[in-house]
Amino acid sequence: MGGVILPDLGAEILVPVCAIIGIVFSLIQWLFVSKVKLVPGGGHAAAGNNSVVKNGHNDYLIEEEEGLNDHNVVLKCADIQSAISEGATSFLFTEYQYVGIFMVAFAILIFLFLGSVEGFSTKTQPCTYDPLKTCKPALATAVFSTVSFLLGAFTSVVSGFLGMKIATYANARTTLEARKGVGKAFITAFRSGAVMGFLLAANGLLVLFIAINLFKLYYGDDWAGLFEAITGYGLGGSSMALFGRVGGGIYTKAADVGADLVGKVERNIPEDDPRNPAVIADNVGDNVGDIAGMGSDLFGSYAESSCAALVVASISSFGINHELTPMLYPLIISSVGILVCLLTTLFATDFFEIKAVREIEPALKKQLIISTVLMTVGIAIVSWIALPSSFTIFNFGTQKVVKSWQLFLCVAVGLWAGLIIGFVTEYYTSNAYSPVQDVADSCRTGAATNVIFGLALGYKSVIIPIFAIAVSIFVSFSFAAMYGIAVAALGMLSTIATGLAIDAYGPISDNAGGIAEMAGMSHRIRERTDALDAAGNTTAAIGKGFAIGSAALVSLALFGAFVSRASISTVDVLTPKVFIGLIVGAMLPYWFSAMTMKSVGSAALKMVEEVRRQFNSIPGLMEGTTKPDYATCVKISTDASIKEMIPPGALVMLTPLIVGIFFGVETLSGVLAGSLVSGVQIAISASNTGGAWDNAKKYIEAGASEHARALGPKGSDAHKAAVIGDTIGDPLKDTSGPSLNILIKLMAVESLVFAPFFAAHGGLLFKIF
After folding, report:
1. Would you state the pLDDT for residue 767?
2. Measuring CA to CA, which residue among 289, 255, 261 is closest to residue 607?
3. How far is CA 270 from CA 214, 263, 276, 520, in A?
4. Closest CA to 555 of 273, 344, 259, 305
5. pLDDT on residue 663
6. In this structure, how many other beta carbons lie within 10 angstroms of the beta carbon of residue 715?
7. What are the distances in angstroms from CA 319 to CA 44, 430, 479, 544, 605?
8. Ranges of the chain whose pLDDT falls below 70
């Protein structure tokens, strides 16, 4: 078999040390951001100049230190920032109260269902995969699965909340730095994103590592039981992410649609104009949807892919022979990923400086390329030192012999597939390329042609990502069965810290632009924040592409683990039990999307009516002599999202339970396969259609080329058509699309956690008839 170079103790030290390095690095980045003071006075300018040296101080970007000492502007920015922060915090606290009740109820369900598999017996039982050995009782699995579920849920909530806090802390600081140049503002926004990325990646890894070691005190040599119980961690992470994504998505888009339709189309006032009553709710929404939701979502993917890999490894030679270092291979990949991302971040903040607007987007894209290239080297080293030269992997009842270089290729193919999906997404959603320019051009003849072109673009953008996912599935499964697919998903997520930094950068820049507009800063500053925001829009689309691609691989790996755990030898599509599951599963993403779209629509309806009411009934609002009632709009978004997130959440959480209990594991395997196949397609097309419409509107507004100027300016018929497209795309790209990847992962991980119960007591209807 060949020995392992890295000793067990080395693996036990490497993982937590890398996690702690990640946490320390994020705190250092936060310190740099906090040097930008939100109080008027000379301290601000001094802090700005000393904090980082190379920051793109090109003369033409510094403009005559414009308004640098304008105390009034700084105070206004501080006020707006605190209003956004308070709105986001109060929404998340309200959301977490509801989610907390669900969490406790679901934890009790897990305990009751898994405990009842052996009638709450405390006797040891024959092992699932090796009946000759005895393993810990089913009651232990119930208790530890419940604990790991609560751990995952708590970590997910904390990840989202910390991300939101950092983003609301950084937004006004980015605005103030924009007065000194686009390079300064970019660094502040990017550092803030890095704080979130590294905190989340390191926390997820550290909590999982500690949980494994604590559970080991009880489980001892029963590794199959130990890692089966750990799957609850992924379930907890994803179930919180679902509510965060759906609730946050409904909140942000209700406010956005209301603000755009009345403000831009009807009243012809600029985006983020302080006269618009929905403007604070819109900016709060960026933080609760795009930051807190995205943070929880990617944490969930990371937790699940780790759990799927660990479950399969525990019943392979690593687990059977109790080889700790190879067993922890998935965690070691993530640990090295943190170090790689740390080095990559320095390229954006310290090694190179941004001097002009056109350098922003390439700098963000370079982050993806650098992290992928460095990570490939990292994976090669990890595969060399942490794996025996050959070993066996569990493959649906048999053990498949695998070489360490084959496993390296599995991880690498996932990593590079992620990069391909990212760049294809960018091609279809960035206004630097022809697809979005064609959509913008179609606005000449009105909103209808814009909608047709946008939908066509979304459908077309699915082709290459699906091929990339298909190739990575084929390669990784051929080499290392389901374990290969799980580590391919981990490969895609190994650079999660950089991915999240780029992703969080977008909403922070968006908020910074909003604050600049509301504080009445000059047109030049707004242009800079717009440039940051436009780049952020594309990178957010890339982030969503990553999330969807990794979700496809993760849910397939979880599906494989579920099939093994439920003792299904083959999933035969020709049997009616499986086929009905398949066709119903393929329908679920449509049902879910219908619910989330309708929720955004009905919440936006209330918002539009309220914004219109204020414009019509508050004297002096259009003239800017009186302030609008922001609080009512914030309340409308909060109430709507809390109420509307429950039905789609219930649909996803209850489907596996109902199908498993009444129709059994075979039908459930069909449901999982169907929802995976259709959910990935809809998620990619919805995200890219929305992103393309948004950037087509920005292309016309920026007027950077001859073609764009012919379509503009703001307020022209073509621009109004583009705003309508953007408004339709909002719920697609920020609510339905991103939530679908949680649907496909969550149903798979839930089925895996409840598999012992379904295998023992499921399929009641088929037993009766």
Report:
1. 80
2. 255
3. 55, 7, 9, 12
4. 305
5. 94
6. 13
7. 56, 46, 19, 34, 55
8. 1-2, 40-69, 128-129
Q: What does 19-49 look like in DSSP terms, one character per residue?
A: HHHHHHHHHHHHHHHHTS-SS-SHHHHHHHH
- Cα pseudo-dihedral 492, 497, 499, 502, rounded to 10: -170
The residue type at 340: V
CB contact at 8 A, 265 and 724: yes
Element holding 395 (H helix, E strand): strand 390-395
**DSSP for residue 358:** G
**Token digits of residue 79:** 């006020």
Q: Which two tokens stand for residue 718?
A: 């073509």
Tell me how far apart the alpha carbons of residues 745 and 589 are, in angstroms, rounded to a whole number. 12
Give the pLDDT confidence score for residue 69 in this predicted structure. Answer: 55
Rounded CA-CA distance 154/233 in Å is 10
d(CA 550, CA 492): 6
Altogether, the residues listed in the chain come to a count of 769
pLDDT score recorded for residue 44: 39
CB 198 within 8 A of CB 22: yes
Q: What is the pLDDT of residues 197-208, one digit of tens each?
A: 999 999 999 999
Distance CA 230, CA 717 (A): 56
Residue 129: the pLDDT is: 67
Contacts of 28 (CB under 8 A, 6+ apart): none
Cα gap 459→437, rounded to integer Å: 17
Query: According to the model, what pLDDT value does residue 50 have?
Result: 35
pLDDT at site 203: 93
Q: Are 333 and 411 spatial neighbours (Cβ–Cβ below 8 Å)?
A: yes
- pLDDT for 153 equals 93
Q: In the chain, how long is the greatest CA-to-CA distance?
A: 83
First to last CA, the chain: 51
Asked if 407 contacts 387 with a C-beta cutoff of 8 angstroms, the reply is: yes
> Distances from the Cα of 170 to the Cαs of 245, 555, 750, in angstroms?
22, 34, 36
Instruction: Report residue 53: phi and psi, to 5°.
Output: -80, -70
Torsion of CA 430, 434, 438, 439, to 10 degrees: -20
Evaluated on CA atoms 753, 758, 760, 761, the torsion sign reads: positive
- For 457-610, strand residue ranges (E) read none
What 8-state DSSP symbol labels residue 623? Answer: T
Find how far residue 217's CA is from the centre of its chain: 33
pLDDT in tens, 686-741: 999 999 998 899 899 888 888 988 987 888 899 999 999 998 998 898 889 889 98
Torsion angles phi and psi, residue 566, rounded to 5? -85, 5
pLDDT at 40: 67
d(CA 225, CA 330): 18
CB hemisphere CA count around 279 (13 angstroms): 26
Q: Are 493 and 302 in contact (CB under 8 A)?
A: yes
pLDDT of residue 698: 86
What's the pLDDT at 2? 59
